Amino acid sequence: MTAPVFVVGSLEGAAPGAVLTLDGPEGRHAVSVRRLQAGEEIVLTDGLGRAAAGVVLRTEGKDTLYVEAADFPVEPEPSPRITVVQALPKGDRGELAVETMTETGVDAIVPWAASRCITQWKGERGTKSLNKWRATAREAGKQSRRLRFPEVGELATTKQVAALLAEADFAAVLHEEGSAPLASAELPASGSIVLVVGPEGGVAPQELETFAAAGAKPYRLGASVLRTSTAGTAAVALLLGRTGRWG
Prior knowledge:
The chain has 247 residues and is an alpha/beta fold.
């Protein structure tokens, strides 16, 4: 099994042989929950693509351990970069979507307030929900041994999503009535891919028109209709395979 991953604030200036400290909530999880001991392998990452791999020298109390760094792996910038615009699902399905897309390999997630969304993010509730999505991406990134965690953007309006689509090298809207399958779409070798996943009630006609004007065509995944919380994950897996990132 690969070494567990924990998050540190910064790895600036660290070199092979350096002794790094992991404390706070991450240290508590490593010491008190995972019960790591001296001699065990561990990876510390900043979540931005940089990491320090080494072994635990010793633990201290319930929330501190010291790591001797041996190697500094780097997860390169993804190409093409894959962003999923995820309409807000009901209940905790949003966290499920974020978790599985992160584990699969998505690079960025943008929550979208679509007109047919049942869930609404407003005020304190909206802030709390966004923080949950970001925490989920962080934990799923650690669980899947990623060194570069996906960015979870601010809640976007339809106009803001359209602007994002207009800048992409390939833009698509997942839609059950799409005339072309995503599996046969012509994809860029580099640059950015932006994919829109609608809410339970589907993408409204006006939204489809707005996105089409921005250059995003409707595509279908397959014969079956997936839930909004799983469609993005399936699409990301397809795109990672087709672009060679899963090669």
